[in-house]
Fold:
Amino acid sequence: MSTEVNFDGLIGPSHNYGGLSHGNVASKSNALRISQPKKAALQGLEKMNYLRGLGLAQGVLLPQQRPHLPTLRSLGFSGSDAEIINRASNQAPELLAQCYSASSMWTANACTVAPSADTADGRVHFTASNLSSMFHRSIEHETTTRLLKSIFSDENYFTHHQALPSGVHFGDEGAANHNRFAENYADAGVQLFVFGRYAFRENRYATAKFPTRQTYEASRAISQLHGLDQNRVVYAQQNPKIIDAGAFHNDVVSVSNLNTFFMHEEAFVDKASMQDELRRKYNGELHFIEVPTEQVSLQAAVKSYLFNSQLIQLPNEQGMALILPSESQENAEVFAYLQDLKEQDTPIKHVQFVDVRQSMQNGGGPACLRLRVALNQAELGAVNSKFILDDQLFAELNRWVNKHYRDEIHPDDLRDPKLAQENFFALDELSQIFDLGSFYEFQREA
Ligand code: SUG
Structure:
């Protein structure tokens, strides 16, 4: 027996709207608005608990240290914490903002995971994503690797790889561009790696104007590191048109679960070959649910995040549920499509909405906030159980958020060293809740 555990990113106390992601429509259009970190984190926790209530195992990944002062130090800012912040805020406020993003909340980008049923050595493999395309995200992977190693520490079951070499040629955005198909989570699957362009080979199709964050070379390297059988791997290129419409990751235009692939009809450059190859390698029945442009335009798909939903398997033969952002309920075009979908005979039997608006305004829907890890019973037993949500942890994290988080952060608040101090104080207590010792850099510097 295997299950899929969703590890959601706990939204950090510095959640703010920096407008940092070129090509991410929501991040750009909400740039410099006032954020609500407490509300954001509580919305995230509610979503986790909702999925747990549906009978799914739910995990938690911790926020990273922000502001990330080690990065500012490496860029030549020196002195005490307050001095570094004052200097950066006077000389380069744009760098301070880069080091202040709570972007590690979007754990679909934390790493790529290969379940043990697919790997040559029978262990679960993890590779933290280098996130090279966006500077504020490129500083996540070291801490991500450290965190994953503390949760999945048993080397009999788990293997961790360093992030790929940095630089845009090996730009890797993790599970957000990766799908896996299998009849059951325990079965050997077929993995689909979606990329935006070739970095070294000539591109057959025009490439997008917006950043194409994932390269073929990165996807290929991950599949090799994870020891996958190439006869059970498919690589497919995302449609540049859709990247330019704002789908900076493939999980903005498709989502899969087990034998089902829910996608926008324009998501791929060569959909027919991708589907043929998947069918051939899968060797079983696959359900493709394609949403036509006629019913849901690219703009509506990107605005509503219809596809950035979680497609989950409910227990007790209840079928699959699509867990969507409330923005999909409010978009007339998308909502009409969903009514239609419910009438169709597909594996998707339920449609539910969750409110993660604070994250959505930075371009992160329900699916961005979670990392899927398929585990068998022995592997699940080897996971650090502190990171699995139960009533007690849910209550503890709500208490912690309510105690430490600000109601609002205005972009200018980042200039105040007091905010950094508050964040570090909160993270110090968090590391104790999870028994992590001196996990954060500021704890080791003291
Ligand atoms: O990388 N937004 C994130 C959103 C990531 C969504 N993830 C998936 N689709 N899987 C990004 O663009 C915005 C931060 C800011 O502007 O303050 C940001 O990083």
